[in-house]
């Protein structure tokens, strides 16, 4: 009787999070990702949107927003992202110790971590605003785009503050230094700044500031991006150019390090390419079975498997001269670091859960039956429940790209046909204007979206 | 039995979450503190400060003593990190200024609609030419009212501080001189509660 009550409780607690409670999140998302690289990217939107009211609404809103965005429906994407932003704000407003939070933690003790409502790591939240800014930009709502950019900047500052205490490279960022040596040392120590700070976000916010006429703000963001991800030639050029234009004190230093700024000719426009490639890797579960007091138990922890090799740069033809993209951020590295930082709390909850589940089993098992070596249905049912319900928390924003690359070029005004690996896109270049081309490579095809902005 | 108690407490705490909701009317000028975002109280505070300041500024009093100057309102530029309808702020301000009886306004947001209407009256052949309003009879504005709304947001632990500053200016279009300028500052601090639902 007692164990039935316990099971009922466990299920009712999980009721809202049924989505990823027993079916792993990556396998739920597999068809969505498949659709994104097919000709009907928007097909799974309906199913995703239905889940926005669930416990993990935040996660599904992020995915739905991204799916709509990749498919080119920017206004739908905007409203999905809005739902995700609202969900984050609700989390912010929540009391430090809340009844619903305790309920979820209690649920996670008897079931698994999937009962806890999803809340993404810092970099996902920044990317949400970065993508929302691009939605506004693509719809030519420039004021709205700048609002999102500033919101992203605020969140980036929070992230920066979080790391500034422990990491020297981030401390240097606050002083506005672009220090390549620090990063070289970091790479050897296996703790590069780019594995916990997102240079792509800083580059996008900087780019939007620049395109919409706030060059001073752009310079600040570019400088931070260059500190996080040194060695990107396009970013270095941006820095020298803006330092020269704004007569910044760092101009001489940047000039000697990166070469002098190349400026456009009278009839030149500019093509700026943001290229997002692949999908961020999925979490995988490691499951270890063992026995406590002769009863079977398992622990199941999320991890990222194997090594994810570098994606090669893309070659762009059809512009003035062939152009090779340069990486600005590895989102996979950010995801791995985010999981690493979560692990201590995860282990604490895992230990508590193993204890709780083993006590539950002992409370239902009959000592007399055990002594007589009889069939104890209750104890066996409880053990089966324990093993089945022990599912690693594999949730993360899976439609994010794995890597972001950039390229920029000045070229005379006119019509061009930009092409990457056989996929092409017509771009119009106007003198004195910038053409932002946003390419999203989902494996089988690359989708291009572009917008002309008069500077 | 111990477990039953635990289950009961958990179930009860979950059940508490389902409180019923209701709708009621409130006072539109009531102080609103639902959250730290830009809200109606901020809008009202900005409007009343700006209108009072402008109507009592001695040079502006001198300008409006003999005639009702014509103003056009440029938008207030939103430089905050929130999506704020700044047109609503300028609407409130121009509304109050107009109601004071000291200024006249030109609405730049309706120029296209007016042009369409005049085009219809003059060129469609549907309207009696003697009653059609001619192009080029409108009166030009003498002054421009414009402004900026910016914010500084700081967050540390469970405290969030939001500071808003609105600056507004009145420019004489002929001379380019700023005839009036003022700013309104608003500070809001939110501290997250430790215990809650």
| First-last Cα distance of chain A | 72 Å
Low-confidence segments of chain B, ≥5 residues, pLDDT <50? none
Q: Segments of chain A where pLDDT lies below 50 for 5+ residues? A: 12-18, 181-190
Let me know the average pLDDT of chain A: 84
CATH topology of one domain in chain B: Rossmann fold
Spatial order of the strands forming the largest sheet of chain A: 7-8-2-11-12
Sum up the overall morphology of chain B in one term: extended
SSE topology string of chain B: HHHEHEHEEEE
The general outline of chain A is: elongated
Tell me what portion of residues of chain B adopts beta-strand conformation: 25-35%
Helix count of chain B?
5
Main sheet specs of chain A: 5 strands, mixed
Q: How many DSSP E strands of chain B?
A: 6
List the helices and strands of chain A in order. Answer: HHHHHHEHHHHHHHHHEEEEEEHHHEEEEE
Alpha-carbon Rg of chain B, integer: 26 Å
What is the second-level CATH architecture of one domain in chain B?
3-Layer(aba) Sandwich
- Which percent range describes the beta-strand content of chain A? 15-25%
Rg over alpha carbons of chain A: 25 Å
Question: Would you summarize the structure shown here?
Answer:
The complex is a heterodimer of chains A (455) and B (197). Chain A has 455 residues and is α+β, with helices and mostly antiparallel strands.
Highlighted features:
heterodimer, A: about 450 residues, alpha+beta, 5-stranded mixed β-sheet, about 20% strand, B: alpha/beta, Rossmann fold, 5 helices, TPR_rpt (chain A)
């Amino acid at each position: 009787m007692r164990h039935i009550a316990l099971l009922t409780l466990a299920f009712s607690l999980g009721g809202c999070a049924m989505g990823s409670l027993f079916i792993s999140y990556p396998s739920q998302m597999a068809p969505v990702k498949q659709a994104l690289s097919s000709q009907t990217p928007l097909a799974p939107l309906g199913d995703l949107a239905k889940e926005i009211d669930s416990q993990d609404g935040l996660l599904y809103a992020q995915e739905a927003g991204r799916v709509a965005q990749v498919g080119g429906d920017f206004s739908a994407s905007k409203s999905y992202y809005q739902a995700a932003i609202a969900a984050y704000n609700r989390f912010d407003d929540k009391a430090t110790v809340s009844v619903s939070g305790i309920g979820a933690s209690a649920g996670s003790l008897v079931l698994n971590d999937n009962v806890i409502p999803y809340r993404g790591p810092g970099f996902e939240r920044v990317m949400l605003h970065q993508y929302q800014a691009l939605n506004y930009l693509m719809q030519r709502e420039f004021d709205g785009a700048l609002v999102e950019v500033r919101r992203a900047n605020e969140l980036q500052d929070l992230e920066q503050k979080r790391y500034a205490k422990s990491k020297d490279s981030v401390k240097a960022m606050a002083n506005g230094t672009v220090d390549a040596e620090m990063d070289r040392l970091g790479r050897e120590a296996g703790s590069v700044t780019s594995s916990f700070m997102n240079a792509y976000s800083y580059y996008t916010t900087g780019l939007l500031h620049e395109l919409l006429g706030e060059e001073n703000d752009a310079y600040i963001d570019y400088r931070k991006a260059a500190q996080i991800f040194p060695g990107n030639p396009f970013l270095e050029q941006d820095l020298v150019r803006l330092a020269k234009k704004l007569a910044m004190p760092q101009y001489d230093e940047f000039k000697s390090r990166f070469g002098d700024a190349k400026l456009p000719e009278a009839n030149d426009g500019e093509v700026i390419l943001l290229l997002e490639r692949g999908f961020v890797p999925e979490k995988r579960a490691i499951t270890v079975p063992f026995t406590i007091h002769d009863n079977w138990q398992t622990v199941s922890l999320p991890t990222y498997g194997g090594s994810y090799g570098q994606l090669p740069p893309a070659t762009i033809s059809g512009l003035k001269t062939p152009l090779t993209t340069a990486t600005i951020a590895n989102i996979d590295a950010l995801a791995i670091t985010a999981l690493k930082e979560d692990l201590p709390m995860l282990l604490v909850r895992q230990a508590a859960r193993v204890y709780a589940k083993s006590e539950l089993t002992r409370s239902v098992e009959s000592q007399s039956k055990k002594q007589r070596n009889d069939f104890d249905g209750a104890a066996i049912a409880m053990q089966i429940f324990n093993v089945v319900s022990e599912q690693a928390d594999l949730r993360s924003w899976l439609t994010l790209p794995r890597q972001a690359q950039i390229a920029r070029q000045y070229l005379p005004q006119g019509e061009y046909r930009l092409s990457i690996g056989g996929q092409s896109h017509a771009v119009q270049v106007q003198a004195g204007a910038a053409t932002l081309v946003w390419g999203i490579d989902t494996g089988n095809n690359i989708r291009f979206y572009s917008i002309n902005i008069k500077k | 039995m111990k477990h039953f108690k635990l289950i009961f407490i958990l179930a009860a705490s979950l059940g508490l979450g389902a409180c019923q909701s209701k709708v009621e009317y409130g006072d539109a000028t009531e102080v609103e503190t639902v959250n730290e975002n830009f809200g109606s109280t901020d809008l009202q505070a900005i409007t009343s400060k700006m209108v009072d300041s402008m109507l009592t500024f001695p040079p502006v009093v001198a300008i409006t003593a003999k005639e009702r100057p014509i103003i056009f309102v440029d938008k207030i530029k939103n430089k905050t990190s929130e999506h704020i309808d700044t047109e609503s702020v300028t609407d409130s301000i121009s509304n109050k200024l107009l109601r004071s009886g000291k200024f006249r306004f030109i609405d730049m947001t309706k120029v296209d609609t007016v042009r369409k209407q005049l085009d219809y009256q003059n060129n469609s052949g549907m309207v009696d030419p003697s009653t059609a309003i001619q192009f080029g009879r409108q009166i030009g504005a003498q002054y421009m009212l414009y402004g900026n709304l910016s914010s500084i947001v700081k967050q540390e632990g469970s405290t969030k501080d939001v500071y808003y500053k609105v600056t507004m200016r009145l420019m004489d279009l002929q001379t380019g001189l700023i005839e009036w300028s003022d700013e309104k500052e608003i500070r809001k601090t939110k501290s997250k509660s430790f215990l809650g639902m």
